[in-house]
Design goal:
By secondary structure, this protein is α/β, with parallel strands linked by helices. It has one domain: Rossmann fold (3-Layer(aba) Sandwich). Helices cover 45% and strands 22% of the residues. It is built from twelve helices and eight strands. An eight-stranded mixed sheet has the order 1-2-4-3-5-6-7-8, with helices on both faces. Helix 11 links the parallel strand 7 and strand 8. Helix 4 packs antiparallel against helix 5. The longest helix has 27 residues.
Length: 241
């Protein structure tokens, strides 16, 4: 069962679409790749590969437009504006998308976030920024130092949207909550993959006592959908009741 919802987000200055597949189960928010929309995960058959979890009522899968990633890919606006949009995108997910998921689910159930490439960056950012909303994160083939794609100067928006920058200084209740969460950092080491990005994140997470694990799937797995077709169902099968 598929549904879609769309509204205007004042935070993002554009319309935002959220798609859902399934009726029951743990809500799983899957972020698209950089230029993707809410239905990208269906077009590229990831939803099909998650169908056993969806049909058994273990997972209810959601996805939303990659607003900030698309602006970055298309180089719309200045670097400062692109970084501000990433910060606003994370806020919109926390304050608009996840509340909509809670409403659809009949209450504030813990949300699992997942994604590949820039979707992995967004997943990592969401669990680290909003651990009270997110239970675990599956970050696949991640690209985590987004400033190397955007350029420009160091800004507050880069600091707050990038876990590599804000995590070393994180303290207090948010860190205490994050230490009860789990971050999976999965990557191949084949074409267009860089497992070193996952290890860089793991070092930062580990230094703060945040549970995490790096899985290198080896050189036969490249930065492409067939890799993620295998990864995500396996990890969700482990994480979901």
């Amino acid at each position: 069962m598929k549904t879609t919802d769309r509204w205007h987000s004042d935070r993002l200055g554009t319309d935002l679409t959220v798609a859902r597949w399934g009726t029951y189960g743990v809500p799983v928010l899957v972020f698209p790749s950089a230029g993707g929309d809410a239905e990208e995960v269906e077009r590229f058959q990831l939803v099909e590969h998650l169908s056993p979890l969806i049909e058994s009522g273990r997972a209810k899968v959601y996805s939303c437009d990659s607003v900030a990633g698309k602006a970055m890919l298309e180089r719309r606006g200045t670097p400062d504006q692109q970084l501000a949009l990433f910060n606003a995108f994370h806020q919109a997910v926390a304050e608009e998308v996840i509340p909509a998921i809670h409403s659809d689910s009949g209450g504030p159930l813990p949300v699992v976030v997942a994604g590949a490439s820039i979707g992995a960056f967004n997943s990592l950012a969401m669990i680290c920024r909003y651990p009270h909303l997110v239970d675990s994160a599956v970050c696949m083939s991640g690209t985590y130092a987004i400033e190397k794609f955007i350029g420009g100067r160091f800004t507050d928006d880069l600091y707050f949207s990038s876990p590599l920058h804000f995590l070393p200084g994180l303290e207090g209740p948010a860190l205490d909550t994050l230490r009860r969460r789990m971050v999976i950092l999965a990557s191949g080491s084949g074409q267009w993959e860089d497992v070193g990005e996952s290890w860089a994140v793991a070092r930062v997470l580990g230094a703060k006592g945040i549970p995490n694990r790096v899985d290198d799937w080896g050189p036969e797995y490249r930065h492409d959908w067939p890799t993620w077709w295998e990864m995500l169902p396996m990890y969700l099968d482990d994480l979901l009741p």
